[in-house]
Design brief:
6 helices; three-stranded antiparallel beta sheet; single chain; 245 residues; RecO; alpha+beta; elongated
Length: 245
């Protein structure tokens, strides 16, 4: 099995009449762009395999930035995502494609991604907890270090009922000001544990990850948001997984 890696397709698009250009997220090499020659032809046995959310074993070659796919095998059937879970999965794929530098190893994040997709496939309720856990894991692997459990001003442990205001590059500082950047100690403890026992902590997690991810995403809108808005009727109370509550 030398040269084989576990991977998922993040995104694909036609490259020629018979080929595909793929963005892969692999266990050992991180995000990799490859050309799958002949994958669009009628006789190709790769058509069903090279789809998002299908666990793959892949090999590629080449010295340039864009590699050539040598082999690909589906390890199992695609993880069953549909409805809101499907659009949530597309959001996660777009997030990885936009944020990770090409060719940088993120082996631990690869398994965070796998667990997120598995959670989305297995949920009968809201996808929000799985999305928040993955976003926090992603920020951690990017080196976005923040101490949720201590006041950046005094160094004391956060208190459940106290309010703390987030200051970029400093952390959470006790404050009487309550605004979009303010969080209770109870909410910060939930962020630290990545467990969200109530609606308030889940909303706080979404609010924080939106702020923290913004510098990595820049001003370009996420396509998955627009897709979700087309999927959900305008009058529906449901919101996109990347929209603030």
């Amino acid at each position: 099995m030398e040269g084989w890696q576990r991977a998922f397709v993040l995104h694909s698009r036609p490259w020629s009449e018979t080929s595909l250009l793929l963005d892969l997220f692999s266990e050992e090499s991180g995000r990799v762009r490859v050309i799958a020659k002949g994958a669009r032809s009628r006789r190709s046995n790769l058509k069903g395999a090279l789809q998002p959310f299908t666990p793959l074993l892949v090999r590629w070659g080449g010295r340039g930035e864009v590699k050539t796919l040598r082999s690909a095998e589906a390890v199992s059937l695609a993880l069953p995502l549909s409805g809101i879970s499907l659009y949530s999965g597309l959001y996660v794929n777009e997030l990885v494609s936009r944020v990770l530098e090409q060719g940088t190893r993120f082996s631990e994040l690869f398994f965070d991604y796998l667990h997120c997709i598995q959670a989305l496939a297995g949920t009968n309720g809201t996808p929000e907890p799985a999305l928040r856990r993955f976003e926090l894991a992603l920020l951690g692997h990017l080196g976005y270090g923040v101490d949720f459990l201590h006041c950046a001003g005094s160094g004391e442990e956060v208190a459940d009922a106290m309010t703390y205001r987030y200051r970029e590059e400093k952390g959470f500082i006790a404050s009487l000001v309550i605004d979009h950047n303010s969080f209770t100690g109870h909410e910060l403890k939930a962020l630290a544990s990545r467990e969200f026992p109530d609606v308030a902590t889940l909303r706080a997690a979404k609010r924080f990850t939106r702020m923290a991810l913004k510098p990595y995403l820049g001003g370009k809108p996420l396509k998955s948001r627009e897709l979700f808005r087309q999927f959900v009727p305008k009058k529906s109370p449901l919101k996109s997984p990347e929209e603030p509550q």
